[in-house]
Structures are given as structure tokens and as C-alpha cells.
Write a structure and sequence with these properties.
single chain; about 625 residues; alpha+beta; Neutral Protease, domain 2; Serine Threonine Protein Phosphatase 5, Tetratricopeptide repeat; 3 domains; 5-stranded mixed β-sheet; 22 strands; globular
């Protein structure tokens, strides 16, 4: 088996032959403890789905045909499974194959072991569980149009095993194709080339859509959405999918998407995925965005009318290089996806909107990093994290690390290195150790003084923040800080001119206010700045946290209206946490609103909030 593992690890990258099996890594730090797969023995190289979406039962059912690369003599393959109802498994000719399902683990699901014999293509007939944790099933009332149901998936990090029987590990890249059958009045979209964008008849009351991804991708990037979805082009390779009622508004907000792709290519090389479209989802989407190839899934909370939150799109686009092209082999190294992308996102913002705009975002990131370092256990502040993955520090500390390298070696040299890095490791997994080795071989090149200045191992493996960290400061945010100083000295709220503030300036302002304020001051701020009724969800969230911290009763109706309207964890988790922290005052409010809001949240948000608040009775 060792010889086969070596051959797999040295396999040519998919860049040379897009449909060839992608390499895997077999070094100790590349072992993924969140999968049951044994890829050095047998691994999935292609997934072909043929599924029907059943909105009444909240399941998808059909088949998954898997192409397998196996070592000589291998007789079985181990897949990942989370409560799939597997009816049968056959070889390509239809002959039944024996299979067993292992014990269920609450975090990683169960193993699905198939006795493949000589078969190198198997067909799994199955249905997902009605409570599959990759899926959010929405009623018409939970959508913008209020007329049609909606389904969307969220696969990162190990949720896709709840609807696809495959090896659900970021280090086991797979190409894939799909045929999805849905009710005739709905549209299906996926994170792949859309071969039948209008669909085709599939029997009474049904429509079929076909998709193909010929590049090898980590399986968490297979994504599906079904609903009343329209499309409008931005330019020749970008566009927006969303509910028809929101199409004009969303397109206007995301009009710079094509320019972002151009800017990203100018920085770090060609965009290798064909189209880049954005799907703006209903409010229950749990994240700012998800970097599904060819089709970023995005929260509607970024649509604030001033384009001040399109940095989220820049972030998801940047993942087309860092994450989708070069992928963390395990979630212990998720900073390789998120830290790189957060740095790259800022460079796209600078290219389009100028250095001060980028400085605003970088300065706020520094604030986030300081808070996370203070609130986190030391072990959680290492970039190379524990086996189950990292957290917010992956984004903030990771981006600061890369910015520090840039400032140390100079932008031109750093950009040339990064462009080469993405080329060298395209369509392949990566580890922290692998990145540091590449950095030393291709940037440092034996320069001992530079090695000492960069403190690479301290950044990657030790907690906290090294003393060479670069803090980019913003003049715009310094002006907000000056405004806060005047308020602290007694200036009235009416003296604050917010007419041209971006969301980021609002956040600096609201988070910079004293955490303890008298009711009269809170009332003045709310009446003057209209915080409780702001259409901007970032403002509503930050205001709610401040008001809750002061047990400010007049803000409660606005908070109870806000929490069911948004499903993005970034905006609602801090509010629920603030309510819990207020104990006898806050928990009755949380227990009143959470049961009403819970059905509109994605399962990944529900799982976290249930742990914090307890499941509703």
C-alpha cells in the first residue's frame, strides 16, 4: 500500500488534464480525522448524481454513481454517510454489492463500507434524511416572493455526506455531474456548468436540469439550490441568480462583480472555472457567502443599497484561487483557505475602490483579531489548529500573517510568489507544512536574515500574535474614533453626521460606544440615528448588542422583529449571546423569540444556538 500511496501523492495535477484523478497527500499532517475514508486504499474520483427533489417529504432521492481509483488488490471502499437511507448498491452492470453502515457518530456520521471486488464504478440508490443537516427547506412564506418553496444546501465543512454518499474530505478532490429533477415551476442551480439552464421536461409536473463539473473539487463544494429563481447577466461571464422580485435590486448592488474578476486575475492569474455568478439566497442562509465554484451563494444581508458590503463577494471570488484551486487538505489547516482569501479579498478591494477603502477593511480586521485573541483560549489562536478545524482566527490572523510577509519582502516580490504558488499547487490539497516548505523554497531561498524576520513557525504553530505583525490604520476610521471622543465628552447625538457613512463606519461607531450607557443616552442615539428601524442588518445587530448589554427595554420590540428576519450567524449569534449574558432579563426574551425564529434558520445555525440556549420545549 505504501507504493500506491506514493503514486497517488505524485499524480500529475488536474491543471494538466482536468479530468485526471487529482493528487492526494499522504504525509502525517494531511490525515483527515473527520472522514472514514481510506483514500490510500480506494478513493472516489468522480460522482454522478441523478436525484429528484421532494418538497413534501423534505428529501432528495435517486442514485449516485461513483468512479473509483483503487490500489492493486483493494476489495472495499469506505465512504462517509450521515443518516442516508441506502436501498441498494450495485456495480456498473447492476450486480448487487454487499455494504455495511458503521455506528453513528454525532459529529462525523457513520462509515459506509462497500465490498467492491473488482468493480471500479458503483451505483448507490438512496434517499437523504428529512433532517439532513446540509439542507434548508423553506416554505413560501420564508422567501422574498412568498409564492414558492425553496431548498438550498450548505456543504462546508462535512455536511454534504448527509445528501451525497461519497468520501467527504477536502483532501479527496472529485469531479462530478448531476441530473436534478424538480417541480416544473421551480429552477435548480448548482455549483457547476449549467448544461440545461432552462431545464427540460421530465414527466408530468416535473422539470430536469443537468450540470457538469469537469474539474476536481473538494466535495464540500458540491452545492444545490431549488426555488423560484431568476437570472440577469452582469457581463459576458458574470451574473446574478435570485428570486425574481429581488433581481433588479441585487443586480444593481453587485454590478462590480465582473470588474472584481478582472482585478483578481490581474493579481494572481487566470480564473479557471468558466463563469462566475452569484446566487443571492433567502435570509436564512447562515453565512455571508459560500464559495461554491462558478456560483457563489450569498446572503441578502450584503444588499444594503450602498455597495459597502460587496467585499463579501470579493472574498468568495478570491476563494476561486485560495480554497477552491488550492485547498486545505484537512480542516486543521483551514487558515490556508480563509486567511489567504481574506488577504486576497482586501487586495481586490484596493484595486477597485482604492487604498483607503482597503485600509478601512484591514483596520476593522485588526480590531476583530484583537478581540478574538482576547476571548479565545491560547490553543485556539494557532493557525495550524486542532484536528476538527479552526475558527475566526483563521481569517484574521491568517490574513495578518500574509500581509506581514508582503510588507517585509515588498509587494512586487510577494505578488510574484503568490501567483506562482497558485500555479504550482492548482487543483491540489495543501497543508501548513507544505505551504511553509514552498515559501522557503521559492521566496526565502536560504536567506537566514529574512527567515528570522518573518518568524514563520511562530506564526503558523504558536498561539498569539508575533511581534512583527503589521497593523494597517485607516484615516476614515480615525475620524470615527474622533467622533466617539466628542460624544464621550458630552456632544449630542445630533452632532454626528452619518449621511455618507458606509456600513464599516457604522460598525466602528456602534462598537466603539461605551458598553454601559444611561437609558437617556440610548434613547437619544436611537431617536436621532434611527437604529432600531435601520434597514441595514449590520447596524441592527450591533445596536441590539449594545441595547441588550444595558437592559434597554424600548429596544426589545425591534430586537424581536430583527432576529427572525435574518439567518446569518455573524449577525444573530452575538445578539443571542448578549441575551443569554443578561440572564433573568435577557433569557426570557430569547426563549420568546427563538422558537418563532428557529424554523427559518439553517440547521448549522440551529445546532449552535440549541447548544447556547437549549432547544425550545
Amino acid at each position: 500500500m505504501l507504493r500506491f500511496a506514493l503514486l497517488l501523492s505524485l499524480a500529475p495535477p488536474a491543471l494538466a488534464a482536468p479530468d485526471a484523478p487529482a493528487p492526494i497527500l499522504t504525509t502525517p499532517e494531511a490525515v483527515d480525522v473527520l472522514t472514514y475514508a481510506q483514500p490510500q486504499v480506494a478513493r472516489v474520483t468522480h460522482v454522478d448524481l441523478d436525484l429528484a427533489v421532494d418538497f413534501a417529504a423534505h428529501v432528495v432521492r435517486g442514485t449516485a454513481a461513483l468512479d473509483i481509483l483503487a490500489a492493486p488488490g483493494a476489495r472495499e471502499i469506505v465512504l462517509d454517510d450521515r443518516k442516508l437511507a441506502v436501498a441498494r448498491i450495485t456495480d456498473a452492470a447492476g450486480h448487487p454489492l454487499r455494504f455495511t453502515v458503521g455506528p453513528d457518530d454525532p459529529e462525523k456520521g457513520a462509515s459506509l463500507t462497500v465490498q467492491i471486488g473488482d468493480a471500479r464504478r458503483i451505483v448507490v440508490t438512496y434517499a437523504s434524511d428529512p433532517h439532513a443537516n446540509a439542507f434548508a427547506w423553506l416554505t413560501p412564506a420564508q422567501t422574498a416572493g412568498k409564492a414558492k418553496p425553496y431548498l438550498f444546501s450548505q456543504g462546508e465543512s462535512i455536511l454534504n455526506r448527509s445528501w451525497i454518499p461519497t468520501q467527504d474530505s477536502p483532501g479527496i478532490r472529485q469531479s462530478w455531474s448531476a441530473t436534478i429533477t424538480v417541480p416544473a415551476d421551480l429552477t435548480a442551480v448548482m455549483s457547476a456548468a449549467r448544461l440545461t439552464p432552462e431545464g427540460e421536461p421530465a414527466g408530468p409536473g416535473q422539470r430536469r436540469f443537468r450540470f457538469a463539473m469537469d474539474r476536481n473539487v473538494p466535495p464540500y463544494l458540491i452545492a444545490l439550490a431549488v426555488g423560484g429563481i431568476g437570472f440577469a447577466a452582469i457581463d459576458h461571464r458574470t451574473g446574478v441568480y435570485t428570486e425574481p422580485a429581488s433581481l433588479a435590486r441585487d443586480c444593481a448592488e453587485l454590478a462590480d462583480t465582473g470588474r472584481m474578476v478582472d482585478a483578481a486575475e490581474a493579481l494572481y492569474g487566470p480564473y479557471r472555472w468558466g463563469r462566475y455568478d452569484v446566487l443571492v439566497l433567502p435570509p436564512s442562509f447562515p453565512f455571508g457567502g459560500m464559495e461554491n465554484p462558478t456560483l457563489t451563494f450569498a446572503t441578502p444581508t450584503i444588499i444594503t443599497g450602498d455597495r459597502s458590503n460587496v467585499d463579501v463577494i470579493a472574498h468568495e471570488l478570491a476563494h476561486s484561487w485560495s480554497g477552491n484551486l488550492v485547498t486545505n487538505a484537512t480542516w486543521a489547516d483551514s487558515w490556508l483557505n480563509e486567511g489567504f482569501t481574506t488577504y486576497f479579498e482586501n487586495r481586490i478591494d484596493e484595486a477597485l475602490y482604492g487604498r483607503e477603502r482597503a485600509a478601512v477593511l484591514a483596520d476593522l480586521l485588526w480590531d476583530d483579531l484583537q478581540r478574538e485573541l482576547k476571548e479565545s483560549a491560547p490553543a485556539a489562536t494557532r493557525l495550524h489548529g486542532d484536528a476538527t478545524g479552526g475558527g475566526a482566527v483563521d481569517y484574521t490572523k491568517g490574513a495578518t500573517f500574509l500581509r506581514t510577509v508582503e510588507y517585509t519582502v515588498g509587494r512586487a516580490r510577494w505578488d510574484a510568489y503568490l501567483r506562482g504558488y497558485f500555479d504550482r499547487h492548482a487543483f491540489a490539497p495543501q497543508t501548513t507544512a507544505g505551504f511553509l516548505a514552498d515559501l522557503r523554497a521559492n521566496l526565502i531561498r536560504g536567506d537566514k536574515d529574512l527567515e528570522a524576520k518573518l518568524q514563520l513557525d511562530r506564526w503558523a504553530y504558536e498561539p498569539g500574535l508575533p511581534d512583527n505583525a503589521v497593523h494597517v490604520k485607516s484615516a476614515t476610521l480615525a475620524a470615527i474614533d474622533a467622533t466617539l471622543g466628542r460624544l464621550a465628552a458630552g456632544a449630542p447625538a445630533a452632532s454626528v453626521d452619518t449621511a455618507r457613512w458606509s456600513t464599516q463606519e457604522w460598525i466602528r461607531f456602534l462598537n466603539g460606544l461605551p458598553r454601559q450607557l444611561p437609558a437617556a443616552r440610548l434613547a437619544e442615539l436611537d431617536a436621532t440615528l434611527h437604529l432600531s428601524v435601520s434597514p441595514n442588518p449590520y447596524i441592527r445587530s450591533a445596536w441590539a448588542v449594545l441595547a441588550i448589554g444595558n437592559r434597554y427595554d424600548p429596544a426589545v420590540p425591534g430586537i424581536e422583529a430583527f432576529l427572525p428576519s435574518v439567518g446569518r450567524g455573524l449577525l444573530i449569534r452575538p445578539v443571542y449571546a448578549a441575551l443569554k449574558a443578561q440572564g433573568d432579563w435577557g433569557m426570557p426574551i430569547a426563549r420568546r423569540v427563538y422558537p418563532r425564529a428557529r424554523s427559518g434558520y439553517h440547521p448549522v445555525i440551529v445546532a449552535g444556538l440549541d447548544r447556547v440556549l437549549g432547544p425550545p420545549e
